[in-house]
Amino acid sequence: xxxxxxxxxxxxxxxxxxxxxxxxxxxxxxxxxxxxxxxxxxxxxxxxxxxxxxxxxxxxxxxxxxxxxxxxxxxxxxxxxxxxxxxxxxxxxxxxxxxxxxxxxxxxxxxxxxxxxxxxxxxxxxxxxxxxxxxxxxxxxxxxxxxxxxxxxxxxxxxxxxxxxxxxxxxxxxxxxxxxxxxxxxxxxxxx
Length: 192
Fold this sequence. Notes:
By secondary structure, the protein is mainly α. It has helices at residues 2-18, 23-30, 34-41, 49-59, 63-67, 81-109, 116-137, 142-160, 173-184.
């Protein structure tokens, strides 16, 4: 069965690239996800009979051609999505801090030193990180980011009203962090 997976994978890769299609474009024509196409091309699985028939029509070959050996198999290179996600996250965070620095410099040139701009950049960065992490990691371990966000918001409120010495705001940190910790302990139910 593994030989069949490898042969089919090689043929799909070759035919798809010759047709000038991306995995996403082929997936759309098949009404499947690009992840499915990627699995087929990495020889992790073989498409079912209906999909093989549909592919044979798209590429203008027989189903037998898709399942028969024609050349040496080369695996489709797996894109390094983790590195791309880290780069995008880094660009977003650096962009926030660049905007904060720009605002600080503009205020400085106007005769005001507003150092709180950098304090405000911390929760904005954490919110951005939370959103990107939620999208890419499906919220896995978001409670660490949320815990840092809660503390940064309390610190922002305190530092904004520094003249009033509202140290009592830090008392909020204890129950707020407890809520975050307890929320992280809730287990999701299994889907049937």
